[in-house]
Amino acid sequence: YTGTAPLAIRGLSPGQSEDEVVALLGPPDRRNAAGVVESLQWQRLPDLVATVDTRTRRVTEVLGNRLDAEGVEVVSWGMSEADVRAVLGKPASSKGRYQPSGSGVISLGMKRAGGTLFYRRDGNDVEITLNDDALAYIRMRPAAP
Fold first, then answer.
1. pTM, 2 dp
2. How many CA atoms lie within 13 A of 79 on its CB side?
3. Are residues 59 and 49 in contact, defined by beta-carbon separation less than 8 angstroms?
């Protein structure tokens, strides 16, 4: 993706107010509070969770399976690692996840079972997790200092 519009997960990104999120998606169907954070979930979008700081009422993390820019899908669930890299470019870093290959009784080595690509875009850290070379979910948080 070479455009200038900021990336978001279904239109949500860290820093937005809870009011902005509700105006965009409607009231959440579910709220789960745990200390100083509360997760907001929508039944019609089962793949979307926004975590809100209960003190500031601002989004601190978004978890979903579709990354977009100005409402246009950029990457989404099921895309291969090669497809994600073709769209977003080389990640800042990556981490593979491996499991034994073979019958389970006799291990013949290790095979890659997935991994995570880490990008830093628009002041956010974006983690794209893949299972068996298919995009499983995306997590977006404010960039770590």
1. 0.85
2. 21
3. no
